[in-house]
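Lab notebook, bench 4. Still working through the backlog of constructs that have no structural model yet. Next entry is a single chain of 248 residues. Request: give me the structure tokens for it.
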Amino acid sequence: MSARRAPTAVLLHGFLGSPADWEPITGTLAGRLPHVAPALVDHPTLASLETALRRAVPGPAVLIGYSMGARLALHLLVRDPERYRAGVLACGSPGLSAVRERAERRRADARLAARLRGLAGTGALRGFLDDWYAQPIFAAVRSHPCYHAMLARRLQIDPGAWAAALTHLGTGALPSLWEALPGLRQPALVLAGRLDARYATIAARMAERSPAVRARLLPDCGHAVLCEKPAEFATQMATFLDEELRNS
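Model written out:
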């Protein structure tokens, strides 16, 4: 790493997640970089998240995001290339490029937010989570030993707060960044599970569109990479950041 001031790693978790989701990988950052892990429900708009990060991290930073957090990290990379020096983006997307697709997604997210706001009690929340994780994208994690601990954390969420965050931070709410990728200035590592066909394809497409992007797939892994393969994620993250920050 050069003599420049070491950046702070900003860890952005996914939808329904919390900073605790990062605990399996923060040990790898120890001795490398200081880190902060904000709770996205405390910053339900991109502007409020940016403001909070400027207070918490006044100096340079690198962004490490998962799923929704990866998509937000990409927005921050594009918006402030002088501040954010690199990104590690796991199972995220630049968004939806078609106007009709974004409109359909906004309607779907509005229905999801309405359901979240209507949940009353732990039983209703458990029913919601059972439905959410019954989606094919989560097939791999449902049979993983980490699943029950992850589900226990999700049972502690505030559904109303997540409804608000979804309204402003959902895939349909924020603009597509596909057209911005060729001009991306900072190096970015895009990770996906090899069993997560949708996001594995997105990772490859992102690398094709931007010379700044490297795509890597984690073997025997689905969408929930922080739960399913934390050690492999941490290794890929550390190798990338050590190389890029040393050369910056």
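Notes after review: The chain has a mean pLDDT of 95. The radius of gyration is 17 Å. Flag for follow-up if needed.
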